[in-house]
Amino acid sequence: MSEVALYAHPARLRAANWLRTLAALGVLIGTVAVLTLVFGRTGERIALLMCVNVAAVVALAVFCGNTGIVSFGHGAFMALGAYASGILTMPAGLQRSALPELPGWLSGYELSVLGALPLVLLVGLCFALLTGSAISRLQGASAAIATLGLLIIVHSIAISAREFTRGSQTFYGVPRITDLTFVLLAAIGVVIVARLYRESRWGLFVRAARDDEDAASALGIYPRRARLVAWTLSGTLATLAGALYGHILGAFSPASFYLGLVFAQVVMMIVGGMSSVGGAVVGVVAVTILQNTVRNLEGGITVVGVTLPEVFGLTTVSLGIAILLVIWLRPQGLVGGFELGPGAGARLLDRIKPTVPVTPTPRPVTTEILKARGLSRSFAGVKAVTDVSFDVPAGRITGLIGPNGAGKSTFVNLITGQYAADTGTAEIDGVHLTGLLRHRIIEHRVARSFQNLRLFSGLTAFENVLVAALAAGYGRKNANAVALRELKAFDLGGIAAMRADNLPYGARKRLEIARALAQDPAILLLDEPAAGMNPAETDDLADRLIRIRQDRNIGILLIDHDLRFVNRLCSHIVVMNRGQKIAEGTPEEVRANPEVIEAYIGRGRVARAADASSTQDQVLAN
Ligand SMILES: Nc1ncnc2c1ncn2[C@@H]1O[C@H](COP(=O)(O)OP(=O)(O)OP(=O)(O)O)[C@@H](O)[C@H]1O
């Protein structure tokens, strides 16, 4: 069995992911052990801060790695956690002197650190939900800038809310944590939560939306909601990390959670590789070692009798150099893109017995008809689709052909909510699709593929199909089974563990159809599925589509320029030209239609070829 085939089962794929995370945790625990055993109390303090940083950076990566948006705002959550936990745990006597103006309802609790933690997490959760409702609407650079804005606002509030924080003065009297095991366990807990989330339904949804928001929406994922979940979990975990940080420091000020800290943590995340949980852990360990080594050099050291001069700011400079080197030499980070090769890891996975997957619960056989009525859409005066009406019934493959720019893709985009129709409707089973939000279309069992490949490039082939099944409403076990079924149907089982962007072109085309079929659609809209395939691949795809139509009775709308392919598959063909439907009927009827011939070869040539008996066949055979 080939190495990749070895993992082609959900249990083994999951185990491969966990192995990577466990390896990273091994690095963390090993480093903690070396620090404490070799460097005594100094090493213990470094280890404490390193564990807190692991919790904070993994929390940060829960949002950044899964959404692809770099956040500079997580210092705000850390500050919230530190101040909230500090106030709740501070001895009453110290509190009276440190925070004399603290409102009565907030003073004198004297909770233990563990006792305060649920309340602190609740505060973090509420704050994350509040801020996330705005930030989750944004993407890319604007989202990143919004998080920076959040950091600046919270920093200013922390300075002005003197009765709670002592303003820019040191906030002291916070009970100290010195128990390394407790902090290490907390860090491991955060790593486990992050790993579970990443593999969960919501983790898969948000990673799919990160890679392609349009394709994710077409599957029924609501990207904004998926980002809100990521932000809320990430912010809550960062609040926990902040509380721990505050208890390790014992005294801090708003500056402790500002740009310096945020920059260091972003560097740690990027150095390790922000798209993986293990990457965040390894990044923290690597940068901690770097920072402490450079810090020793900063004060000037003597090497073989030569005393090096003191260089202030060398630690920060080293962070800058580290991030530049990583971006230049290894943009995916130290751990990003790392795949388990053959050897110990593969042998371990081999021991996992693939349980027989459940058979997916069958959905009712479909009888639906997709009806388009008078659909029109213009773009700045260009009439892309004008008054187009026809049916796509279940159990039939309907062809939609026409020259370039005829309006075929726009027609599909109107049905699937990608574009709003100017006029007209599309309905299935009496339900109007036009007017529905994109991610609601799949509820009516209409799935699609895209003209240009729109796979989730950072997800494996298996995850691409799994996420579609989950978005269609399948439970986890059924979704696993559906994903395996579709991968098998398209001969992709052996490459299930490969990232979609590493697959050969033909496999990627098949994967996109497998993904759409995992949604168990009643109607499937395929936009140029054979484009770029060689004749053998096209024939193979035709065989598979014929089998799928027969077995599942689904209705397929097939757009393609390869008319041999269309003729072989379709018993009914619709022809569009310049946005309008110009013909509809059996392949023979369409072939005989002069308007179709004219659309394909032009008016002049039609006239010249008028006597040639083979003209009609030539037109649709090319
Ligand atoms: N988002 C858009 N903005 C502006 N014009 C658009 C947009 N989408 C489509 N069009 C225009 O609408 C017309 C129809 O395009 P469409 O992509 O639907 O044609 P098509 O039949 O799918 O062509 P092809 O076979 O080349 O893919 C074209 O003139 C195109 O430029």
TrEMBL record:
Chief location: membrane
Subcellular location field: Cell membrane
Alphabetized Pfam families for the sequence: ABC_tran, BCA_ABC_TP_C, BPD_transp_2
Membrane topology annotation: Multi-pass membrane protein
TM ranges: 21-40, 46-64, 76-94, 106-130, 142-160, 180-197, 228-251, 257-290, 311-329
Originating species: Sulfitobacter aestuariivivens
GO molecular function: ATP binding; ATP hydrolysis activity; L-isoleucine transmembrane transporter activity; L-phenylalanine transmembrane transporter activity; L-valine transmembrane transporter activity
ABC transporter domain ranges (all copies): 370-603
Keywords: ATP-binding, Cell membrane, Membrane, Nucleotide-binding, Transmembrane, Transmembrane helix, Transport
Protein name (record): Branched-chain amino acid ABC transporter ATP-binding protein/permease
Any single GO CC term annotated in Swiss-Prot or TrEMBL for this entry: plasma membrane
Matching InterPro entries: AAA+_ATPase, ABC_AA/LPS_Transport, ABC_transp_permease, ABC_transporter-like_ATP-bd, BCA_ABC_TP_C, LivM-like, P-loop_NTPase
Single Gene Ontology BP annotation: L-isoleucine import across plasma membrane
PANTHER family xrefs: AMINO ACID ABC TRANSPORTER ATP-BINDING PROTEIN, CONSERVED COMPONENT OF ABC TRANSPORTER FOR NATURAL AMINO ACIDS-RELATED
